[in-house]
Amino acid sequence: MEAVETGLSSLIVTLNAQATTRAAALTALALRQDLQLGELGGNWIPAVLESADPRTAFREIEAIPGVEFVEVVFVELTAPDASQTATLST
Amino acid sequence: MQRRDFLRATALAAATTVIARRLGATIPEGLPAYVAATTADVTPDGVRWDKAPCRFCGTGCHVRVGVKDGRVVAIQGDPAAEVNKGLLCMKGYHVGGILYGKDRLTTPQLRRNGKLEAITWEEAIDILARRVMKDPAGFGFYGSGQWTIPEGYAAQKFMKAGLGSNQIEPNARLCMSSAVTGYVSVYGVDEPAGCYDDLDAADVVILWGNNPAEMHPVLWSRIVDRRTRGEKVVIIDMGTRRTRSTALADHYLEFRPQTDLAIANGIAHLLLANDTWDHDFVGKHCNFRHDPTGKSLLGEAFDLDGYRAALASYTPEYVAKLSGVPAEKIRLLGELFGRRDLRITSLWCMGMNQHTRGTAINRLVHGVHLLSGHWGRPGDAPTSLTGQPSACGTAREVGTLCNALPGGLLVTNAEHRAECEELWNVPPGRINPEPGHHTVLLWEKFCTPTDKGGDIHTIFVQVTNPGQTLPDLNRTFRGKAGLADKFLVVSDVYPTATTELADLVLPAALWVEKNGVFGNSERRTQQWFKQVEPPGQARPDAWMTIALAHRLYELGHPGMRDQDDRFIFTFHDDAGREVPAWDFDHYYDINTDRALFDEYRRFTFHKHKHVAPYDELVKAHGLRWPVVEQADGTFNETRFRFMEFSDPFVKKGAGIQFYHSVTKDDRALIWFCPYEPATEEPDNDYPFWLCTGRVIEHWHSGTMTMRVPQLRGSMPNAYVEMNPADARKLGLANGDMAVLETRRGRLDLPVWIDGRATPQRGLVFVPFFDERQLINTITLGDFCPISKEPDYKKCAVRIRRRPAEELRA
To answer: For residues B784 and B122, what is the distance between their CA atoms, to the nearest angstrom?
Structure first.
C-alpha cells in the first residue's frame, strides 16, 4: 500500500524476524525526525508519521533494510484546499 | 492537551491496538473506548467518533469516522472490526475526502434547451412521476451494489409491488451475476458458503484471475501477514498479467485469456486420472451435471462415467497447448487438489465473472473443490469476492435484479410471487411473472427509437454511472442522445459521464450523510448512522423513491396502494402515529432505514438467509447471515453455511447438507462445461487482447476517488499497459501516445511499460476509472448467455503509435 499526502497518519511497520536486521531497521526508524515510534509487538512496531511529504517518507521507510511491509491505519483529513480539490465537471 | 497531541496519541493508539489484536489480544486495556466502541463517543478534542463500513469495495472494512463541526475530520481503521482488524487500504483511509469535492451536486436540475437549470425538489419529483404515470411499463430503474439495503429494498418494492414491473436492474449485473448463476446452479442458492476466516486457515490460496493486492488490499494483507507470523501459505496466482499480487505469489501461471475453463477441466481430469478425487465426499454430497445447450441455468443430469468421458481430452498437455501454462504447472494444481492434508481456498472476482462463459467457469471452480473434497472445512473454500460495498447485500440479497425478488426468491416462481405479495400486502397477481430486461438489454432498449422496438422511455439511475461503465457505450448509452422521447433521470453526488446526457439530475446524499446498511462479500450485514449533513439540497436515494411513489399515489396510480388502500410506504413512529416520510421535512422523524430493513428482513427466511434485526446490527460490526435467534433471545451469526459445526439449519448428524439443492436431495452439483473460445479473439486485423479493470487508487469509475486530491494525484489519468516486447516491436516507449482501435471505436492513451503490472505478450490492459478516456466506448458488449454479465476482459484490439501529425491536429 502506498501512503499519500495527509496531515498525520499512523503506520504499522512489519520488521524482518532476523534479530540483527531488525535491530538495524529499528535504529534507522528511530533516527527519523518525522516518525514517533510506539512499542514493538512481535514483528510489528506502531508509528505516527508527520511529514510535509508523507508519500516520499513512506517510500523511504519501506526501503529501509529490514522493513518488510508498511500499513496505514489512521489518517487525519486536512481541510480541503479549494485550489487542490478535484473537479470533473463535464 | 493540544488537539495535535491528542490526535497523535489517537493515531498511535490505533496502530498499537491493531498490533495487539494480531498478537491475540481482544482490545488492549487502557485504551480509550472510542478506539473500538460500536457506539458513538466524543473525545476531549471535540471529535465525535462513530462506526461505518467503508464506502468502497465489497471487502466491508469498518472505519471509525471522526466528525467535528459537522465535517468528517479523521478516519481510522476500526480495530474491533473482524473484517479489517484496524487496517485500511489507501482508498479506505481517504474515504472521508469523497464528501468534499467542490463540485458536489446540491440542487435538482432540469435540462432545458440543452442546459441544466435549477428546479425545486417538488418539481423534480412531479416531472419524474408524470413520466412514469404516462407509461409505467416503459419505465426502468437502474441502481447498483452501492445502493444501501434500505434504498435497494425501497426501489424493489416500488417497482415489483407497486408498478408491477420487473424493469429494475443493479449495475451488479455487470460485475457479479456470473457468481450468482454459479452458486445457484451448483448449490441451489446464492452466495459463498465460507467467509474471510477461510483466509486464516488455508494452506494454499489460488487467485483465479484475481488481483487482491490492488482490489481487496486488506484481505491480501490478511493472507500475506500470516507469513510474517511464520505460517506457510502457498499463493498461486493464475492470471493474464503479472500484478502486485504476483509479486508475493509462489507460483505464477500465466494463461491465455478464456482458457481458465480448460485449466479447471485439466485439474478435474487429473483428479480422476490419478484417482485422487474424494470418493467419500462426492458419494455423499454431490451429483453430476452438464449443459448441452450452453444456455441453461440448471442443465441436465449427468453421471460419473459421462463426466469422466467429457474430461478425457483435458490432459495436461492439451490444457498446456490451449492455455500456454506448462503441463507441469497443470500437474502441480492437480496434485495440490489431490492432497487431503492441505486446505485450499480459491478466490476470484471480475476476472472470472466478466466472462462470456462466466457461469461455466464459476461452476468449474466450485466443481474442482467439490470433486477433490476441498470443501466444508475452514480454509477449504471456493469464494467469490465482490467489487461493490453492497453487491451482495442489495443486488443479490434484496434481489434488485430483473428476475429476482427479495431473499433469493424469483419472479418466475408462482409460489415465490404469492409469498411476496402476501408480505407486501398487495393483491394477488400484482407481481409480474416475466423477468424484465437485463442491464445491457435495458440500455439497448432505451437507446433504440420507440418506433423501432425501444420499449424503455425513461430510466431513473441511482448510485451508479452507466455512462462510463456499460460496455460498448456508443451502442448502450450514448445512443440516447438525439432521441427526443427518451428521458434520463440521474441521482448522483457529482457530475458524471451519465449526468452529461441526463434530462433531470437529482443531488444525492452520500455515505455518512445518511443512514445505511451494506452487505459485504462474506454475507456480513453492516449498519451505520448518518453522521454529517449532506450539502445543499442533497437527499437520500430512499427518500427519492418514496417521494416518487407518493406522487404517483397522489396522481392515482393504483399500484401505490396496498390491499388495505394504504400507501405502500406507510411508516409509523413508536407511538403508532403515521409518519409522512415522503415529505422530506418528516423523513427523519423516524429511522426510515430501520423500518425498511426490518420489513425486508421478513423475506430473508424462506431461503435461510436470515439477516439480523436492525437493532442487533446497530450493536455489531456487521453480522454474517443466517443470523439465528437463540432461546435466550440473543442472535448468532453463521460463519460457514451448509456445515453442521456452524450452520444451525443443517440436520444433526448430516455433517454437510446442501439444503437448497437443485436436485432436492441435499447434494451440490459438479458440472462439466467445455472450454470454448472467446466470442471475439485477436486476429490479423485486431491482433491484441484488450483487458480492462481497476487500479488501487480509484474506485470503479472514479466519481468519488478522482475528487480526493491525494488519490487523483497518485493516479491522475488512464493509460494503456503493454508488455515491453510488444511495445518495442511497435516502436512505443513509456509515455508515447498509442492509438487503440477495436471494431467499435478508437481511443488514444499514453503507454505505460514496466509499471505496476506487466501483461503477457499480445495483451494490453486499460483501467476504466478515467471519465476523460472512456475505454468502454471500445469494449465488447457480449455477455454470458446465462448470467447476462458482459465480458470486459477480452476483446480484440489493434494498436499503433499515434502519428505526429495527428498529435498536432
So the answer is: 42
Tell me if A9 and B495 make a contact (CB, 8 A cut-off).
no
Question: Can you tell me the ipTM of this complex?
Answer: 0.86
- Strand segments, DSSP code E, in B203-320 are 204-208, 234-239, 241-242, 251-254, 286-290, 300-302
Q: Give me the amino acid identity at B309.
A: A
CB contact under 8 A, A9 and B93: yes
* CA distance, residue B804 to nearest chain A CA (Å): 28
- Rounded to whole angstroms, the Cα distance separating B217 from B587 reads 37
CA distance B650 to B697: 42
Q: Which residues of B are catalytically annotated?
A: 91, 175-176, 350, 387-388
Between CA A19 and CA B239 the distance in angstroms is: 37
Select from B7, B19, B490 the residue whose CB has the most chain A CBs within 10 Å, as the one to mutate to test that interface.
B19
DSSP string, B613-662: PHHHHHTSS-EESS-EE-TTS-EE--SSTTBTTT-TTSPTT-SB--TT-T
Residue entry with cell 496466482: B237
Give me the helix-helix angle, B316-323 and B260-273, nearest 10°.
170
Q: Is the pLDDT of residue B299 over 80?
A: yes
- CA separation for the pair B440, B471 (Å, rounded): 8
For residue range B123-180, list pLDDT tens digits in order.
Answer: 999 999 999 999 999 999 999 999 999 999 999 999 999 999 999 999 999 999 999 9
Closest approach of chain B CAs to the CA of A83, in angstroms? 9
pLDDT in tens, B377-435: 999 999 999 999 999 999 999 999 999 999 999 999 999 999 999 999 999 999 999 99
- Residues B708-737: pLDDT tens digits? 988 888 899 999 999 999 999 999 999 999
